[in-house]
Specification:
This protein is an alpha+beta fold. The protein has 13 helices and 16 strands. The protein has 3 domains: 110 residues, PAS domain (Beta-Lactamase); 156 residues, PAS domain (Beta-Lactamase, 2-Layer Sandwich); 88 residues, PAS domain (Beta-Lactamase), CATH 3.30.450.20. The strands form 3 sheets. Strands 1, 2, 3, 4, 5 and 6 form a 6-stranded antiparallel beta sheet that branches. Strands 7, 8, 9, 10, 11 and 12 form a 6-stranded antiparallel beta sheet that branches. Strand 15 and strand 16 form a beta hairpin.
Length: 471
C-alpha cells in the first residue's frame, strides 16, 4: 500500500477517534471524577477538623479537675475574689485620677518624684499583694514595689508569663480604655514564681506631657482559700489549652445555665445564658440541645458582636460517675478556619464554587451568586446527603438556575453538606477555546503534514511506477 494511502487512512482514523471521544463525553466524565474527588477530600478534611474539637471536648470533660469545678463553690469563690480586687483597683484608679486632675501641671517625672502620688500608686493588697501602675500604649511599668520591675515594658513578659502579658495588652491597647483581669504567674521579689490574680482599671486623666495610665491591683493566691488556689491553677491550664489549639473562647456552664468559667469574656461569669442577654441565641440553643440529647453538638456559624468575628460553637456534656449532668463545655471556633478548606482549589474557584449548607438548607458559607434558603432547590440532594448514602453527584440545576457538574457530600461529625460544583457550559467553552487555540492548530499542522506526506507519497509511487515500466 502506498505511503499516501496509508497517511490518508491514518488521518481519517484519527478524526474518527476524536469524534468518538467527544461523542461519548469523555471530557464530561473526567470532569465529574475530578469534582467527586475534590468534594470527598474536602468533606473528609473538614470532618477531621471538627472531630479534633470533639476529641478535645472529650478529653476536657473527663478531666478530674474540670469535674471538681462543678462540684465545688468555684464560681462563688472566684466572684468574691474578683469583686474584692476590683474594688481595690477601682478605688486606686479614682484616687489617682483625682490627683492628676488637681495637679494638671505635673509630668510623668514629677509623679515619680511625688511621695504622695507614690503612696496612692503602690498600696498593699492583703498580706502579700500590691498595686502597680503602667502607662497605656507603651505599657511601661512606672510604679511597682520591686525596683527591678520598674521601667520594664509588659512586652518583655510575653514568652515567660503569657497570661499577664495578655491582660496588659488588653487594657493598654484598647480604645477606649477597657478593664482587664485574670489569673497569672509572676516572679516575686525573692525570685519565686507564684500564682496571682489581678484587676486592671483605666485612669481617665493625663499628665501634662500626655501620659495616661492604668492601675493593677494584684494578690498572691497562696494566702487565699484552697478553692481560689485551685481556680488559679485551672485557669492557667485551660488558657494554655485554648492558646495551643486556637479556640476563640472556651466556656464552662453549669446545669442551671450559669457561666462558671470563661477564657475570654470574664464579664460573663455568673451570667445565665437562658435568661440573660444570650437567651434564644445559637449559644443558648446549642446548650439546650446538648442538655436534652447529652451528645456532642455543633452549631451553625454566628457573628459574635463581642468577638467581632463569625464563630462556630461545639459543645459536649459533662457527666459525673452516677450519670448526672453537671454542665456543658463549649468551645468557639473561628469560622474562617472552616472556610479555609474551601478556598484552596483554583480550578473550582475559576469554574465554579464550593460551599456548605446545613440540613435545613441554610448556607453555612457564602455563596458565589448570593442566596438564602436553599431547601426548595436542593431537597433531593439534601435528603441524599443526610441519608445512609451520604451524598451523590451528576449534572443538575443549581440554586442560580445554572447547569453544573456537581458532587455533594455529608461532612462527618456535622449536619452539614458540602457542595462542589463546576459551571459546565463555562468550563466546556473555556476548554474548547484552549482546544481551538492549541488543539485545532495542532490538528491543522498535522493535516498539513499528512497532506504533504500524502502528495509526496503519490509522487514517489508514480515515479517508481513509471520506472518499473508501468508495472
Amino acid at each position: 500500500m502506498s505511503i499516501g494511502i496509508i497517511s490518508i487512512v491514518v488521518f481519517l482514523f484519527s478524526v474518527s477517534v476524536i469524534g468518538m471521544i467527544y461523542e461519548k463525553g469523555e471530557i464530561g466524565s473526567s470532569l465529574l471524577d475530578s469534582v467527586e474527588t475534590i468534594s470527598e477530600l474536602k468533606a473528609e478534611r473538614i470532618g477531621n477538623f471538627i472531630f479534633e474539637s470533639e476529641k478535645d471536648l472529650m478529653y476536657l470533660s473527663q478531666k478530674k479537675e474540670v469535674l471538681e469545678i462543678f462540684s465545688s463553690n468555684f464560681s462563688t469563690e472566684v466572684e468574691l475574689l474578683e469583686n474584692k480586687i476590683k474594688g481595690i483597683s477601682k478605688n486606686a484608679a479614682r484616687d489617682m485620677a483625682y490627683y492628676l486632675s488637681e495637679n494638671p501641671e505635673m509630668t510623668l517625672e514629677d509623679l515619680k518624684n511625688s511621695e504622695k502620688f507614690n503612696e496612692i500608686a503602690v498600696q498593699d493588697v492583703g498580706e502579700t499583694g500590691y498595686t502597680y501602675v503602667n502607662s497605656r500604649f507603651e505599657g511601661i511599668l512606672h510604679f511597682h514595689p520591686d525596683p527591678k520591675a520598674r521601667g520594664l515594658a509588659y512586652h518583655a513578659w510575653k514568652e515567660r508569663f503569657p497570661n499577664i502579658w495578655k491582660y496588659n495588652e488588653e487594657v493598654a491597647q484598647s480604645i477606649p480604655c477597657k478593664d482587664s483581669y485574670g489569673f497569672y504567674d509572676w516572679k516575686d521579689i525573692d525570685g519565686i514564681v507564684r500564682k496571682k490574680f489581678t484587676y486592671h482599671s483605666c485612669i481617665n486623666e493625663q499628665t501634662k506631657d500626655n501620659y495616661s495610665f492604668y492601675v493593677g491591683a494584684s494578690t498572691y493566691l497562696d494566702e487565699l482559700s484552697p478553692i481560689i488556689q485551685f481556680a488559679g491553677y485551672m485557669d492557667e491550664e485551660l488558657l494554655l489549652f485554648q492558646n495551643l489549639n486556637n479556640y476563640v473562647d472556651m466556656n464552662l456552664i453549669n446545669s442551671n445555665g450559669e457561666v462558671i468559667w470563661t477564657a475570654e469574656q470574664k464579664n460573663d461569669l455568673g451570667t445565665n445564658i437562658l435568661t440573660g442577654r444570650y437567651s434564644d441565641t445559637i449559644f443558648s440553643n446549642l446548650y439546650l440541645d446538648i442538655k436534652q440529647d447529652l451528645k456532642f453538638k455543633i452549631s451553625n456559624p454566628a457573628y459574635s458582636d463581642i468577638e467581632r468575628k463569625s464563630v462556630v460553637f461545639v459543645g459536649s456534656p459533662i457527666i459525673d460517675n452516677p450519670g448526672n449532668l453537671m454542665g456543658i463545655f463549649l468551645l468557639q471556633l473561628d469560622t474562617t478556619l472552616v472556610k479555609s478548606f474551601l478556598s484552596n482549589t483554583p480550578f473550582v474557584k475559576k469554574f465554579g464554587e464550593a460551599y456548605i449548607i446545613d440540613s435545613s438548607g441554610k448556607p453555612i458559607t457564602s455563596l458565589k451568586y448570593g442566596g438564602g434558603d436553599l431547601s426548595q432547590v436542593y431537597g433531593e440532594e439534601l435528603d441524599a446527603c443526610h441519608s445512609n448514602i451520604g451524598g451523590g453527584s451528576g449534572d443538575y440545576i443549581n440554586y442560580k438556575n445554572i447547569t453544573v457538574v456537581g458532587s455533594y457530600r455529608k461532612i462527618p461529625n456535622t449536619n452539614w453538606c458540602l457542595f462542589v460544583e463546576i459551571h459546565k457550559e463555562y468550563f466546556l467553552k473555556e476548554y474548547f477555546n484552549l482546544w481551538n487555540f492549541g488543539g485545532w492548530n495542532g490538528i491543522y499542522l498535522g493535516i498539513s503534514l499528512i497532506i504533504i506526506l500524502g502528495i509526496t507519497g503519490l509522487i514517489f509511487d508514480n515515479y517508481f511506477y513509471l520506472k518499473r515500466g508501468g508495472k
